[in-house]
């Protein structure tokens, strides 16, 4: 257990504060998103028969997970690290509101996959908030050496506290 | 496309293949557009010298976050406007590089009755031009019964569905 130290185990079970996305579900942002994923479903665009039971225009299913962006006036990581040749362009957004795993922050990060449950769409105009926790951290010996599998559970809710979706993400660190 | 009518539980059989959703070829412009839309600036998706020389990758990578969108589109469009995509899981097992065309596939592996709606389990994945699988996964979709009500919204999971192993 070279990687899974006592210091790292302290993070298991750690829960984030509730974080609210800096912008609500906006028509223009949804349009750019729908065009980028090449799914211009009318339910994302205007009130229509197929979104009547959702209460009008909605965002694509995974949209809430991408709403947690850099707030107006917060530090710009691109500018802060513009002269760092090792900066890979990633900012802290991959931790879903959780603090970085300090003991392994030097390790590479791979997206291992997700388990997602959906209950509601995020509707146009709604705000979205999340709360996450480090559900588990395990070490596995693989053909490529030891790796850590970090599981993060995140709940996404609308401004009224109604559950939109839950995500269990597996991040691989090595 | 999503504009079709409802799909009913009675019409679904184990072994039924979902119509394949093809995406691509995914050029660097597609990847840059997605990075910009979600404001994620990970260089391995648009900075080729960084990807190859610094991160020792074979080229620019198609974002896993983009591939999962394609899976959701396949499922959402197939289940139709009166159904619901309840659960989806997938693993990113292999890289896909800029220039590839991806085929998102699904197949019904099991079906069972739920409370006022039916449930279909799906095996799914994403293959590239060479037929290599990169993103194996599973899903559980809720479909209305013919002549029945739409699947409840917000979705109410069945009270005691045995969990998939």
Describe what you observe in this structure.
The complex is a heterodimer of chains A (174) and B (165). In chain A, a hairpin with a 4-residue loop joins strand 4 (145-158) and strand 5 (163-173). Chain A starts with 5 loop residues before the first helix and ends with a strand. Chain A has one domain (6-86, 93-173): Hotdog Thioesterase (Thiol Ester Dehydrase, Chain A), CATH 3.10.129.10. Chain A has 3 helices and 5 strands; from the N terminus they run αβααββββ. The mean pLDDT of chain A is 94. Chain A is mainly beta and 174 residues long. With 165 residues, chain B is an alpha+beta fold. In chain B, a hairpin with a 4-residue loop joins strand 3 (102-113) and strand 4 (118-127). The interface between A and B is large, with 43 and 46 residues. Strand 2 (109-118) of chain A pairs antiparallel with strand 2 of chain B.
């Amino acid at each position: 257990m070279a990687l899974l130290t006592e210091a790292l185990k302290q993070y298991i079970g750690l829960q984030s504060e509730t974080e609210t996305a800096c912008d609500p579900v906006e028509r223009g942002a949804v349009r750019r998103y729908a065009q980028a994923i090449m799914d211009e479903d009318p339910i994302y665009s205007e009130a229509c028969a197929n979104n009547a039971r959702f209460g009008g225009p909605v965002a694509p299913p995974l949209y809430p997970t991408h709403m947690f962006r850099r707030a107006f006036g917060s530090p710009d990581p691109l500018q802060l690290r513009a002269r760092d040749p090792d900066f890979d362009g990633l900012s802290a957004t991959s931790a879903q509101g959780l603090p970085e795993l300090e003991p392994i922050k030097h390790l590479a990060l791979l997206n291992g996959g997700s388990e997602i449950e959906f209950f509601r769409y995020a509707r146009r105009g709604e705000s979205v908030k999340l709360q996450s926790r480090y559900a588990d951290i395990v070490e596995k010996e693989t053909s490529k050496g030891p790796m850590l599998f970090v599981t993060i559970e995140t709940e996404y809710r609308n401004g009224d506290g109604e559950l939109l979706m839950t995500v269990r993400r597996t991040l691989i660190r090595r | 496309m999503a504009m079709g009518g409802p799909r009913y539980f009675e019409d679904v059989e184990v072994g039924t293949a979902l119509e394949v959703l093809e995406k691509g070829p995914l050029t660097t412009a597609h990847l840059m557009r997605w990075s910009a839309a979600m404001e994620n600036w990970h260089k391995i998706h648009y900075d080729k010298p960084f990807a190859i020389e610094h991160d020792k990758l074979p080229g620019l990578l198609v974002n896993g976050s983009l591939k999962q969108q394609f899976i959701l589109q396949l499922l959402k469009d197939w289940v139709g406007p009166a159904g619901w995509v309840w659960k989806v899981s997938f693993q990113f097992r292999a890289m896909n590089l800029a220039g590839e065309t991806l085929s998102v596939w699904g197949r019904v592996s099991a079906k069972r009755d739920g409370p006022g709606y039916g449930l279909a389990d799906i095996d799914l994945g994403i293959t590239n031009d060479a037929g290599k699988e990169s993103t194996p996964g599973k899903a559980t979709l809720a479909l209305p019964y013919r002549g029945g009500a739409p699947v409840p919204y917000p979705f109410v999971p069945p009270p005691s569905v045995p969990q998939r192993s």
